[in-house]
C-alpha cells in the first residue's frame, strides 16, 4: 500500500537527471526506491521508522553478496527446531490456517539461529509471504472470507509462499561497488550532511482520519522480530500493536513535519518529495514549504492508480501523484 513500484521509471529519470553519487531514502517502506537508487549506482542510506522495512532494506540494499542456500531453506521449511507456539496461541483463529501459523513458529525456530544477511533474507521472505497470503495485504480485519476470491496467493500454504519469496529475494542480490547504510529510526535523527539526493515519501496525511501504518501492518511488524519488544493490544480483535505516533500521518501536524524535514535536509544537493493529490497539504502549499529551503522548485505531475489489494478485482483509485524537486538556484 503506497508502494512506488509503478512510479519507478519517472523516479529513475529524475534521479538520473539530478546526478550524483550519494542518496538518502528517508522513508524506505517497501524498499523499491532504495533498491532503484542502488541500481543507479548511488551509495544509499535507507531509513524507516518501522522495523520490517529496515529488514527488507538490509536484505536487498545493504546486502551485496549473500544468498539463502537451498539447505537453509529446506531447514526453515522442515520440522521445528524447538516447541515454541507463540504465533499459534496468540493468533489462534486469526489470519491464517492452523498449519500456516505452525509453520511461522517453526520457521522462526530456525531463523533465530541465523545472523547477518541470511537472517535478513529469511525474515524478509517470511514477511512478504504473510503479506501475500493475507487478503488485501493488510491486517485490519479478521474475516478473510470476505475477500476469498480463489486467487493463487490465498490458496498457497505459507511454506510454499516462503520458498518462492526466498527465490525472489535471492535474485535481487547484487553489488554496485559501493557500501550502503540501513537505519531504523526517526527521520529527524538522520545525519544531515550533504547527500546529492534526498528522497522523501512520508505517509500521506488524509483529509479525514489518519494514516496509521501500524494499524495496517502490525502483524508484519511483529513477525519481523517475533514480537520481541512489542506491545500487543490483546483486547483488540486483530491483536494489533500499540500505535506509534508520527506527525506525518495527521492533517493537523503534517505542515510542520514537512517543513522540519525540508529544513533538516537543506544542505542536500536536491530534495525530491513524492506526494498525492488525495492528501493534505495541497501542491501549492508544498511548493511554498519546499521553497523556504530550496529556491528552485519543480513540480512534476504523474497520473497514478493506487491499488488496494493484489488481485485483478482489487479496488483502485485514480489520483495525481506529484514529484516536487527542490534545488539551489
In words, what does this structure look like?
The chain has 329 residues and is of the alpha/beta class. It folds into 2 domains: 1-64 and 178-211 and 250-329, Rossmann fold; 66-173 and 214-241, no CATH class. It contains 12 helices and 7 strands. The chain has helices at residues 8-18, 32-39, 51-62, 70-76, 86-90, 98-111, 116-133, 152-155, 158-172, 213-223, 254-264, 283-291; strands at residues 22-25, 43-48, 181-184, 197-200, 270-276, 296-308, 315-327. A 7-stranded mixed β-sheet has the order 3-2-1-4-5-7-6. Helix 6 runs antiparallel to helix 7 (116-133) and helix 7 (116-133) crosses helix 9. The radius of gyration is 20 Å and the shape is globular. 38% of the residues are buried. The model is unreliable at 307-311 (pLDDT under 50).
Number of helices: 12
Secondary-structure content class: alpha/beta
Order of helices and strands: HEHEHHHHHHHEEHHEHEE
With strands numbered from the N-terminus, the spatial order across the biggest sheet is: 3-2-1-4-5-7-6
- The mean pLDDT is 93
Query: What shape does the CA trace take?
Result: globular
Distance between the termini: 35 Å
| CATH architecture annotation name of the largest domain | 3-Layer(aba) Sandwich
CATH class of the largest domain: Alpha Beta
